[in-house]
Automatic annotation (TrEMBL):
Coiled-coil regions listed: 445-472
PROSITE patterns for this protein: WD_REPEATS_1, WD_REPEATS_2, WD_REPEATS_REGION
Single GO MF descriptor: actin filament binding
Native organism: Brachypteracias leptosomus (short-legged ground-roller)
Protein name: Coronin
WD repeat intervals: 78-120, 128-170, 171-212
Domain of life: Eukaryota
Keyword Repeat tagged: yes
Domain DUF1899: 5-69
Pfam families linked to this entry: DUF1899, WD40, WD40_4
Leader sequence residues: none
Keywords annotated in UniProt: Actin-binding, Coiled coil, Repeat, WD repeat
Presence of the UniProt keyword Repeat in the record: yes
Chain's gene name: Coro2b
Length: 476
Protein backbone atom coordinates (compact mmCIF):
# COMPACT_ATOMS: atom_id res chain seq x y z
CA UNK A 1 0.00 0.00 0.00
CA UNK A 2 1.13 3.55 -0.72
CA UNK A 3 1.01 4.68 2.93
CA UNK A 4 3.77 2.31 3.99
CA UNK A 5 7.16 4.07 4.02
CA UNK A 6 9.72 2.48 1.73
CA UNK A 7 13.25 3.31 2.84
CA UNK A 8 15.56 3.50 -0.12
CA UNK A 9 18.38 5.68 -1.37
CA UNK A 10 16.98 8.73 -3.15
CA UNK A 11 17.95 12.39 -3.32
CA UNK A 12 14.23 13.26 -3.15
CA UNK A 13 13.39 11.13 -0.10
CA UNK A 14 13.18 14.21 2.14
CA UNK A 15 11.33 16.58 -0.17
CA UNK A 16 8.85 18.63 1.84
CA UNK A 17 6.04 21.06 1.05
CA UNK A 18 6.24 24.65 2.29
CA UNK A 19 3.11 26.84 2.26
CA UNK A 20 3.66 30.54 1.51
CA UNK A 21 2.92 33.02 4.27
CA UNK A 22 -0.49 34.70 4.24
CA UNK A 23 0.83 37.94 2.73
CA UNK A 24 2.23 35.95 -0.23
CA UNK A 25 -1.13 34.25 -0.92
CA UNK A 26 -3.99 35.59 -3.05
CA UNK A 27 -7.03 36.33 -0.90
CA UNK A 28 -10.63 37.44 -1.47
CA UNK A 29 -11.12 35.60 -4.78
CA UNK A 30 -14.65 34.31 -5.58
CA UNK A 31 -13.51 30.92 -6.91
CA UNK A 32 -16.04 29.22 -9.18
CA UNK A 33 -18.42 26.70 -7.64
CA UNK A 34 -18.69 24.76 -10.92
CA UNK A 35 -18.47 20.99 -10.35
CA UNK A 36 -16.69 20.29 -13.66
CA UNK A 37 -13.58 18.16 -13.01
CA UNK A 38 -10.88 20.67 -13.91
CA UNK A 39 -8.37 22.79 -12.03
CA UNK A 40 -9.96 26.19 -12.89
CA UNK A 41 -6.48 27.64 -12.48
CA UNK A 42 -3.47 28.28 -14.72
CA UNK A 43 -0.13 29.86 -13.86
CA UNK A 44 3.08 30.86 -15.61
CA UNK A 45 6.16 32.88 -14.66
CA UNK A 46 4.23 36.18 -14.86
CA UNK A 47 0.52 35.67 -14.26
CA UNK A 48 -1.98 33.64 -12.23
CA UNK A 49 -5.40 33.00 -13.82
CA UNK A 50 -8.41 31.74 -11.82
CA UNK A 51 -11.94 30.99 -13.01
CA UNK A 52 -14.39 32.94 -10.83
CA UNK A 53 -18.04 32.73 -9.86
CA UNK A 54 -20.04 35.20 -11.94
CA UNK A 55 -23.58 35.78 -13.15
CA UNK A 56 -24.63 36.17 -16.78
CA UNK A 57 -21.70 34.38 -18.40
CA UNK A 58 -18.22 33.11 -17.61
CA UNK A 59 -15.20 35.05 -16.41
CA UNK A 60 -11.73 34.59 -14.95
CA UNK A 61 -9.19 36.75 -13.15
CA UNK A 62 -5.64 37.37 -14.36
CA UNK A 63 -3.36 38.59 -11.57
CA UNK A 64 0.37 39.44 -11.82
CA UNK A 65 2.31 37.09 -9.52
CA UNK A 66 3.86 39.94 -7.56
CA UNK A 67 0.41 41.36 -6.73
CA UNK A 68 -0.21 39.16 -3.68
CA UNK A 69 -2.50 39.84 -0.74
CA UNK A 70 -6.18 40.71 -0.80
CA UNK A 71 -7.75 41.17 -4.23
CA UNK A 72 -10.41 43.88 -4.50
CA UNK A 73 -14.00 42.71 -5.28
CA UNK A 74 -14.14 44.96 -8.35
CA UNK A 75 -10.81 43.71 -9.75
CA UNK A 76 -10.94 43.62 -13.60
CA UNK A 77 -11.94 40.31 -15.19
CA UNK A 78 -11.75 38.56 -18.55
CA UNK A 79 -15.49 38.20 -19.16
CA UNK A 80 -16.28 37.66 -22.84
CA UNK A 81 -17.83 34.16 -22.67
CA UNK A 82 -21.63 33.73 -22.66
CA UNK A 83 -21.40 30.51 -20.60
CA UNK A 84 -19.36 29.17 -17.68
CA UNK A 85 -15.61 28.91 -18.33
CA UNK A 86 -14.55 25.27 -17.98
CA UNK A 87 -10.79 25.33 -18.68
CA UNK A 88 -7.95 27.84 -19.12
CA UNK A 89 -4.35 27.26 -20.27
CA UNK A 90 -1.42 29.65 -20.81
CA UNK A 91 0.53 29.50 -24.06
CA UNK A 92 3.89 27.83 -23.16
CA UNK A 93 5.81 30.07 -25.58
CA UNK A 94 4.06 33.47 -25.24
CA UNK A 95 3.49 34.39 -21.62
CA UNK A 96 0.65 36.88 -22.10
CA UNK A 97 -1.52 34.63 -24.33
CA UNK A 98 -4.14 32.43 -22.65
CA UNK A 99 -6.77 30.10 -24.12
CA UNK A 100 -10.16 29.49 -22.53
CA UNK A 101 -13.10 27.24 -23.34
CA UNK A 102 -16.68 27.45 -22.21
CA UNK A 103 -20.19 26.05 -22.12
CA UNK A 104 -21.03 28.50 -24.93
CA UNK A 105 -19.28 26.03 -27.36
CA UNK A 106 -16.43 28.46 -28.12
CA UNK A 107 -12.68 28.52 -27.56
CA UNK A 108 -11.17 31.99 -27.20
CA UNK A 109 -7.65 33.36 -27.25
CA UNK A 110 -6.90 36.38 -25.04
CA UNK A 111 -3.91 38.72 -25.04
CA UNK A 112 -3.22 40.09 -21.57
CA UNK A 113 -1.59 43.56 -21.56
CA UNK A 114 1.73 44.24 -19.85
CA UNK A 115 1.25 44.65 -16.12
CA UNK A 116 -2.13 42.92 -16.09
CA UNK A 117 -5.68 44.15 -16.65
CA UNK A 118 -6.72 47.73 -15.92
CA UNK A 119 -10.36 47.22 -16.94
CA UNK A 120 -12.67 44.34 -17.83
CA UNK A 121 -11.65 42.55 -21.03
CA UNK A 122 -14.58 41.44 -23.20
CA UNK A 123 -12.98 41.21 -26.67
CA UNK A 124 -10.83 38.17 -27.44
CA UNK A 125 -8.13 38.40 -30.10
CA UNK A 126 -9.51 35.19 -31.59
CA UNK A 127 -12.84 33.36 -31.26
CA UNK A 128 -12.88 29.74 -32.40
CA UNK A 129 -16.17 28.01 -33.24
CA UNK A 130 -16.19 24.36 -34.30
CA UNK A 131 -17.76 22.37 -31.51
CA UNK A 132 -21.52 21.78 -31.41
CA UNK A 133 -21.58 21.30 -27.65
CA UNK A 134 -19.79 22.82 -24.68
CA UNK A 135 -15.98 22.58 -24.69
CA UNK A 136 -14.46 21.02 -21.56
CA UNK A 137 -10.69 20.86 -22.28
CA UNK A 138 -7.99 22.87 -24.04
CA UNK A 139 -4.31 21.90 -24.38
CA UNK A 140 -1.39 23.63 -26.15
CA UNK A 141 0.99 21.50 -28.18
CA UNK A 142 4.23 21.10 -26.16
CA UNK A 143 6.76 21.83 -28.94
CA UNK A 144 4.84 23.68 -31.69
CA UNK A 145 3.80 27.30 -31.59
CA UNK A 146 0.13 28.23 -32.23
CA UNK A 147 -1.24 24.66 -32.26
CA UNK A 148 -4.12 24.21 -29.82
CA UNK A 149 -6.22 21.12 -29.02
CA UNK A 150 -9.79 21.35 -27.74
CA UNK A 151 -12.11 18.56 -26.58
CA UNK A 152 -15.87 19.04 -26.48
CA UNK A 153 -18.97 17.25 -25.28
CA UNK A 154 -19.66 16.39 -28.93
CA UNK A 155 -16.97 13.65 -28.42
CA UNK A 156 -14.55 15.36 -30.84
CA UNK A 157 -11.00 16.69 -30.43
CA UNK A 158 -10.26 19.59 -32.77
CA UNK A 159 -6.73 20.71 -33.67
CA UNK A 160 -6.59 24.47 -34.28
CA UNK A 161 -3.93 26.27 -36.29
CA UNK A 162 -4.02 29.74 -34.73
CA UNK A 163 -1.98 31.18 -37.60
CA UNK A 164 -5.15 30.90 -39.71
CA UNK A 165 -7.69 30.67 -36.87
CA UNK A 166 -9.35 27.48 -38.10
CA UNK A 167 -9.46 23.77 -37.20
CA UNK A 168 -7.14 21.76 -39.44
CA UNK A 169 -7.69 18.25 -38.04
CA UNK A 170 -10.41 16.39 -36.18
CA UNK A 171 -10.01 13.31 -33.95
CA UNK A 172 -13.32 11.48 -34.02
CA UNK A 173 -12.62 8.12 -32.35
CA UNK A 174 -14.33 8.64 -28.99
CA UNK A 175 -17.83 7.42 -28.18
CA UNK A 176 -18.37 9.52 -25.04
CA UNK A 177 -17.10 12.62 -23.23
CA UNK A 178 -13.29 13.03 -23.21
CA UNK A 179 -12.02 13.42 -19.64
CA UNK A 180 -8.31 14.12 -20.11
CA UNK A 181 -5.61 14.71 -22.75
CA UNK A 182 -1.84 14.31 -22.37
CA UNK A 183 1.09 14.61 -24.82
CA UNK A 184 4.37 12.76 -24.92
CA UNK A 185 7.60 14.78 -24.86
CA UNK A 186 7.74 15.76 -28.56
CA UNK A 187 3.97 15.96 -29.04
CA UNK A 188 3.83 13.14 -31.61
CA UNK A 189 1.37 11.11 -29.51
CA UNK A 190 -1.77 12.03 -27.61
CA UNK A 191 -3.18 9.92 -24.77
CA UNK A 192 -6.84 10.37 -23.84
CA UNK A 193 -9.15 9.02 -21.16
CA UNK A 194 -12.85 8.85 -21.91
CA UNK A 195 -16.13 8.32 -20.11
CA UNK A 196 -16.55 5.10 -22.13
CA UNK A 197 -13.88 3.62 -19.74
CA UNK A 198 -11.23 3.36 -22.47
CA UNK A 199 -7.65 4.57 -22.54
CA UNK A 200 -6.42 5.51 -26.03
CA UNK A 201 -3.07 6.45 -27.55
CA UNK A 202 -3.72 8.46 -30.73
CA UNK A 203 -1.53 9.77 -33.54
CA UNK A 204 -3.02 13.29 -33.58
CA UNK A 205 -2.28 14.33 -37.17
CA UNK A 206 -4.03 11.32 -38.69
CA UNK A 207 -6.52 10.70 -35.87
CA UNK A 208 -5.54 7.00 -35.93
CA UNK A 209 -5.86 5.06 -32.67
CA UNK A 210 -2.52 3.27 -32.15
CA UNK A 211 -3.44 1.52 -28.90
CA UNK A 212 -6.60 1.12 -26.89
CA UNK A 213 -7.25 -0.35 -23.45
CA UNK A 214 -10.69 -1.23 -22.19
CA UNK A 215 -10.20 -1.00 -18.45
CA UNK A 216 -12.60 -3.31 -16.62
CA UNK A 217 -10.90 -3.43 -13.22
CA UNK A 218 -9.54 0.13 -13.40
CA UNK A 219 -11.96 2.83 -14.51
CA UNK A 220 -9.66 5.54 -15.89
CA UNK A 221 -10.25 9.20 -15.05
CA UNK A 222 -6.92 10.94 -15.70
CA UNK A 223 -3.87 10.02 -17.78
CA UNK A 224 -0.38 11.48 -18.05
CA UNK A 225 2.62 10.56 -20.23
CA UNK A 226 5.71 9.94 -18.09
CA UNK A 227 8.09 12.06 -20.14
CA UNK A 228 10.29 10.13 -22.58
CA UNK A 229 10.02 6.80 -20.70
CA UNK A 230 7.33 5.48 -23.11
CA UNK A 231 5.05 4.82 -20.16
CA UNK A 232 1.71 6.21 -19.08
CA UNK A 233 0.20 6.61 -15.65
CA UNK A 234 -3.53 6.73 -15.01
CA UNK A 235 -5.63 7.51 -11.97
CA UNK A 236 -9.06 6.03 -11.57
CA UNK A 237 -11.41 3.88 -9.55
CA UNK A 238 -11.34 0.12 -8.97
CA UNK A 239 -14.38 -2.14 -9.22
CA UNK A 240 -14.71 -1.75 -5.40
CA UNK A 241 -14.82 2.07 -5.76
CA UNK A 242 -11.40 2.63 -4.21
CA UNK A 243 -9.07 5.20 -5.74
CA UNK A 244 -6.09 3.68 -7.50
CA UNK A 245 -3.26 4.39 -9.92
CA UNK A 246 -2.00 2.20 -12.76
CA UNK A 247 1.23 2.21 -14.76
CA UNK A 248 1.14 1.19 -18.44
CA UNK A 249 3.90 0.36 -20.92
CA UNK A 250 3.20 2.12 -24.20
CA UNK A 251 5.53 -0.24 -26.13
CA UNK A 252 3.49 -3.27 -25.10
CA UNK A 253 -0.16 -4.18 -25.37
CA UNK A 254 -2.28 -1.95 -23.14
CA UNK A 255 -4.55 -4.85 -22.19
CA UNK A 256 -2.87 -5.14 -18.77
CA UNK A 257 -1.10 -2.48 -16.68
CA UNK A 258 2.43 -3.06 -15.35
CA UNK A 259 1.23 -2.34 -11.83
CA UNK A 260 -1.97 -1.26 -10.09
CA UNK A 261 -1.87 0.30 -6.65
CA UNK A 262 -4.80 1.25 -4.45
CA UNK A 263 -4.54 4.63 -2.74
CA UNK A 264 -7.54 4.96 -0.42
CA UNK A 265 -11.32 4.68 -0.26
CA UNK A 266 -12.16 8.38 -0.72
CA UNK A 267 -14.40 9.55 -3.54
CA UNK A 268 -12.64 12.68 -4.86
CA UNK A 269 -10.96 12.63 -8.27
CA UNK A 270 -7.17 12.05 -8.20
CA UNK A 271 -5.14 14.56 -10.24
CA UNK A 272 -1.66 13.30 -11.32
CA UNK A 273 1.26 15.69 -11.93
CA UNK A 274 4.55 14.41 -13.34
CA UNK A 275 7.92 16.16 -13.22
CA UNK A 276 10.07 14.67 -15.99
CA UNK A 277 13.24 16.37 -14.64
CA UNK A 278 13.11 14.72 -11.20
CA UNK A 279 10.98 11.69 -12.22
CA UNK A 280 8.60 12.56 -9.39
CA UNK A 281 4.85 11.96 -9.46
CA UNK A 282 2.48 14.06 -7.35
CA UNK A 283 -1.06 12.88 -6.55
CA UNK A 284 -3.63 15.40 -5.32
CA UNK A 285 -7.25 14.50 -4.71
CA UNK A 286 -10.10 16.90 -5.37
CA UNK A 287 -11.55 17.76 -1.96
CA UNK A 288 -8.46 16.40 -0.16
CA UNK A 289 -6.02 18.47 1.84
CA UNK A 290 -2.97 16.30 1.16
CA UNK A 291 -0.56 15.78 -1.74
CA UNK A 292 1.26 12.43 -2.03
CA UNK A 293 4.49 12.16 -3.98
CA UNK A 294 6.34 9.23 -5.47
CA UNK A 295 9.50 8.54 -7.46
CA UNK A 296 9.14 6.70 -10.78
CA UNK A 297 11.85 4.13 -11.56
CA UNK A 298 12.70 2.12 -14.68
CA UNK A 299 12.75 -1.21 -12.81
CA UNK A 300 10.40 -2.95 -10.41
CA UNK A 301 8.62 -1.89 -8.28
CA UNK A 302 8.55 1.17 -10.66
CA UNK A 303 6.70 3.31 -8.11
CA UNK A 304 8.35 4.30 -4.80
CA UNK A 305 6.39 6.22 -2.19
CA UNK A 306 8.33 9.19 -0.80
CA UNK A 307 6.21 11.30 1.50
CA UNK A 308 2.97 13.23 1.90
CA UNK A 309 2.21 16.93 2.29
CA UNK A 310 -0.77 17.47 4.60
CA UNK A 311 -3.08 20.41 5.06
CA UNK A 312 -6.51 20.76 6.74
CA UNK A 313 -7.93 22.92 3.91
CA UNK A 314 -9.49 20.95 0.99
CA UNK A 315 -8.36 21.81 -2.55
CA UNK A 316 -10.72 22.39 -5.46
CA UNK A 317 -7.94 22.45 -8.03
CA UNK A 318 -4.21 23.07 -8.43
CA UNK A 319 -2.20 25.23 -10.79
CA UNK A 320 1.43 24.27 -11.54
CA UNK A 321 4.27 26.71 -12.13
CA UNK A 322 6.49 25.93 -15.17
CA UNK A 323 10.08 25.01 -14.35
CA UNK A 324 11.57 28.33 -15.44
CA UNK A 325 9.42 30.14 -12.86
CA UNK A 326 10.80 28.25 -9.83
CA UNK A 327 13.17 29.63 -7.19
CA UNK A 328 16.34 27.60 -7.79
CA UNK A 329 18.19 29.37 -4.95
CA UNK A 330 15.76 27.73 -2.48
CA UNK A 331 16.10 24.26 -4.13
CA UNK A 332 12.44 24.44 -5.18
CA UNK A 333 11.63 21.60 -7.62
CA UNK A 334 7.84 22.05 -7.97
CA UNK A 335 5.25 24.65 -7.04
CA UNK A 336 1.50 24.28 -6.73
CA UNK A 337 -1.12 27.02 -6.50
CA UNK A 338 -3.91 25.54 -4.38
CA UNK A 339 -7.51 26.74 -4.71
CA UNK A 340 -9.27 26.84 -1.31
CA UNK A 341 -12.88 27.64 -2.22
CA UNK A 342 -14.25 28.05 1.33
CA UNK A 343 -11.75 30.81 2.11
CA UNK A 344 -11.55 32.36 -1.38
CA UNK A 345 -7.81 31.77 -1.12
CA UNK A 346 -5.00 30.73 -3.50
CA UNK A 347 -2.05 29.22 -1.59
CA UNK A 348 1.37 28.71 -3.22
CA UNK A 349 2.93 25.42 -2.03
CA UNK A 350 6.64 24.93 -2.78
CA UNK A 351 8.14 21.43 -2.91
CA UNK A 352 11.71 21.82 -1.66
CA UNK A 353 14.74 19.51 -1.59
CA UNK A 354 16.59 20.27 1.68
CA UNK A 355 20.22 21.15 0.92
CA UNK A 356 22.79 22.86 3.13
CA UNK A 357 24.69 24.46 0.28
CA UNK A 358 23.26 27.64 -1.29
CA UNK A 359 25.01 27.08 -4.63
CA UNK A 360 23.22 25.89 -7.76
CA UNK A 361 22.32 22.19 -7.47
CA UNK A 362 22.89 20.74 -10.96
CA UNK A 363 21.75 17.23 -9.99
CA UNK A 364 18.18 18.39 -9.29
CA UNK A 365 18.01 20.94 -12.12
CA UNK A 366 18.89 19.25 -15.44
CA UNK A 367 18.27 20.94 -18.78
CA UNK A 368 14.54 21.53 -19.08
CA UNK A 369 12.10 22.55 -21.87
CA UNK A 370 12.28 26.29 -22.40
CA UNK A 371 10.10 28.99 -23.89
CA UNK A 372 11.19 28.67 -27.52
CA UNK A 373 9.04 26.54 -29.86
CA UNK A 374 10.83 23.78 -31.75
CA UNK A 375 8.43 23.76 -34.73
CA UNK A 376 6.10 25.98 -36.72
CA UNK A 377 2.50 24.84 -37.28
CA UNK A 378 3.18 24.02 -40.94
CA UNK A 379 6.21 21.90 -40.05
CA UNK A 380 4.30 19.89 -37.45
CA UNK A 381 1.25 19.42 -39.68
CA UNK A 382 3.53 18.14 -42.48
CA UNK A 383 4.73 15.31 -40.22
CA UNK A 384 7.89 16.67 -38.59
CA UNK A 385 8.58 15.73 -34.94
CA UNK A 386 11.19 17.48 -32.85
CA UNK A 387 12.09 17.39 -29.16
CA UNK A 388 11.58 20.60 -27.16
CA UNK A 389 14.39 23.17 -27.08
CA UNK A 390 16.05 22.86 -23.67
CA UNK A 391 17.34 25.60 -21.39
CA UNK A 392 19.43 25.73 -18.21
CA UNK A 393 18.11 27.24 -14.99
CA UNK A 394 21.61 27.97 -13.67
CA UNK A 395 21.58 31.71 -14.30
CA UNK A 396 17.93 32.06 -13.36
CA UNK A 397 15.17 32.75 -15.85
CA UNK A 398 15.81 36.12 -17.50
CA UNK A 399 15.28 35.45 -21.18
CA UNK A 400 12.04 36.67 -22.77
CA UNK A 401 10.49 34.79 -25.64
CA UNK A 402 10.81 36.36 -29.08
CA UNK A 403 7.60 34.74 -30.31
CA UNK A 404 4.72 37.18 -30.90
CA UNK A 405 1.09 36.20 -31.38
CA UNK A 406 -0.65 37.73 -34.40
CA UNK A 407 -4.35 36.98 -34.75
CA UNK A 408 -5.54 36.20 -38.30
CA UNK A 409 -8.32 38.20 -39.91
CA UNK A 410 -11.14 35.93 -41.09
CA UNK A 411 -14.85 35.84 -41.76
CA UNK A 412 -17.29 33.57 -39.93
CA UNK A 413 -18.35 30.65 -42.06
CA UNK A 414 -19.16 26.97 -41.87
CA UNK A 415 -16.41 24.86 -40.30
CA UNK A 416 -15.55 21.89 -42.54
CA UNK A 417 -12.94 19.33 -41.39
CA UNK A 418 -12.48 15.92 -43.06
CA UNK A 419 -15.45 16.76 -45.31
CA UNK A 420 -17.81 17.23 -42.33
CA UNK A 421 -19.44 20.51 -41.30
CA UNK A 422 -18.78 20.44 -37.56
CA UNK A 423 -21.53 22.92 -36.74
CA UNK A 424 -24.14 20.88 -38.62
CA UNK A 425 -23.05 17.36 -37.65
CA UNK A 426 -24.46 17.19 -34.11
CA UNK A 427 -24.04 13.87 -32.21
CA UNK A 428 -26.96 12.24 -30.38
CA UNK A 429 -27.89 13.88 -27.11
CA UNK A 430 -26.68 12.38 -23.85
CA UNK A 431 -29.01 11.20 -21.08
CA UNK A 432 -28.27 14.28 -18.95
CA UNK A 433 -29.04 16.63 -21.84
CA UNK A 434 -32.32 14.81 -22.55
CA UNK A 435 -33.28 15.09 -18.88
CA UNK A 436 -32.49 18.80 -18.86
CA UNK A 437 -34.61 19.30 -21.98
CA UNK A 438 -37.45 17.25 -20.44
CA UNK A 439 -37.51 19.31 -17.24
CA UNK A 440 -37.23 22.55 -19.23
CA UNK A 441 -40.23 21.57 -21.32
CA UNK A 442 -42.13 20.53 -18.18
CA UNK A 443 -41.47 23.97 -16.72
CA UNK A 444 -42.64 25.59 -19.95
CA UNK A 445 -45.86 23.49 -19.95
CA UNK A 446 -46.48 24.42 -16.30
CA UNK A 447 -45.98 28.10 -17.09
CA UNK A 448 -48.36 27.94 -20.07
CA UNK A 449 -51.01 26.18 -17.92
CA UNK A 450 -50.75 28.90 -15.30
CA UNK A 451 -51.13 31.56 -18.01
CA UNK A 452 -54.16 29.70 -19.41
CA UNK A 453 -55.78 29.47 -15.98
CA UNK A 454 -55.25 33.22 -15.50
CA UNK A 455 -56.84 33.85 -18.90
CA UNK A 456 -59.82 31.63 -17.94
CA UNK A 457 -60.36 33.61 -14.74
CA UNK A 458 -60.25 36.89 -16.68
CA UNK A 459 -62.75 35.53 -19.26
CA UNK A 460 -65.14 34.40 -16.49
CA UNK A 461 -64.91 37.80 -14.84
CA UNK A 462 -65.70 39.53 -18.14
CA UNK A 463 -68.64 37.19 -18.75
CA UNK A 464 -70.00 37.92 -15.26
CA UNK A 465 -69.65 41.68 -15.77
CA UNK A 466 -71.40 41.43 -19.14
CA UNK A 467 -74.26 39.40 -17.60
CA UNK A 468 -74.66 41.90 -14.77
CA UNK A 469 -74.65 44.75 -17.27
CA UNK A 470 -77.44 43.12 -19.35
CA UNK A 471 -79.58 42.49 -16.25
CA UNK A 472 -79.20 46.00 -14.88
CA UNK A 473 -82.42 48.26 -14.66
CA UNK A 474 -81.02 50.74 -17.24
CA UNK A 475 -81.01 48.09 -19.95
CA UNK A 476 -84.57 47.06 -19.06
Amino acid sequence: MSWRPQYRSSKFRNVYGKVASREHCFDGIPITKNVHDNHFCAVNARFLAIVTESAGGGSFLVIPLEQTGRIEPNYPKVCGHQGNVLDIKWNPFIENIIASCSEDTSVRIWEIPEGGLKRNMTEAVLELYGHSRRVGLVEWHPTTNNILFSAGYDYKVLIWNLDIGEPVKMIDCHTDVILCMSFNTDGSLLATSCKDKKLRVVEPRSGRVLQEASCKNHRVNRVVFLGSTKRLLTTGVSRWNTRQIALWDQQEDLSMPLIEEEIDGLSGLLFPFYDADTHMLYLAGKGDGNIRYYEIGSEKPYLSYLMEFRSPAPQKGLGVMPKHGLDVSACEVFRFYKLVTLKGLIEPISMIVPRRSETYQEDIYPMTPGTEPALTPDEWLSGVNRDPILMSLKEGYKRTSKVVFKAPVREKKSVVVNGIDLLENVPPRTENELLRMFFRQQDEIRRLKEEMSQKDIQIRQLQLELKNLRNSPKNN
